[in-house]
Amino acid sequence: MKTLLGALVVALLLLSGCAATVTEAGYYWGKYANTLYDYTKDPSDQNLDKHVAELESIVEESKERDLKVPPGVHAELGYIASRRGNESIALGHYEAEMKLYPESRIFLERLAATNEQGS
């Protein structure tokens, strides 16, 4: 009986751990907070690459789970791509963000215009 109860508790913990990766609003954030913290604490290229990989993973996982990509993820990928000199990739991410979140259009259009002027 104890073994069955223990197995049930473990199963419930595992299931609740999987469910916790999707927020109540229906967004999958992965390990965003962890990689952003690591990059903020140590802004190295290696930590930035890990953060970009996590952002890309969030986009892919959201698609696989048929979830909407969380707000700001495409915009952040676009901003990082722009800082790295990849304007076409940046614009693609800005467009994706505006399509998902039309309220971000004015901000992202200004950001894209600023990037073009700075080039």
CATH topology: Serine Threonine Protein Phosphatase 5, Tetratricopeptide repeat
Secondary-structure element string = HHHHHH
What is the share of helical residues? Answer: over 70%
| Percent of sequence in beta strands | under 5%
Shape: globular
Average pLDDT for all residues: 86
Number of structurally distinct domains: 1
Main sheet makeup: none
Within CATH, the superfamily carries the name Tetratricopeptide repeat domain
Please report the first level of CATH classification, the CATH class: Mainly Alpha
Give the helix/strand class: mainly alpha
Q: What is the CA-based Rg, rounded?
A: 18 Å
Write up this protein:
The chain has a single domain (24-118), classed as Tetratricopeptide repeat domain (Serine Threonine Protein Phosphatase 5, Tetratricopeptide repeat, Alpha Horseshoe), CATH 1.25.40.10. The chain is an all-alpha fold and 119 residues long. It has helices at 2-19, 32-41, 45-64, 73-83, 87-100, 105-118.
What's this, in brief?
Helices cover 73% and strands 0% of the residues.
List the main descriptive attributes of the protein structure presented here.
119 residues, mainly alpha, Serine Threonine Protein Phosphatase 5, Tetratricopeptide repeat, globular
Topology record:
Layout: H1 2-19, H2 32-41, H3 45-64, H4 73-83, H5 87-100, H6 105-118
Helix pairs in contact: 2-3, 3-4, 4-5, 5-6
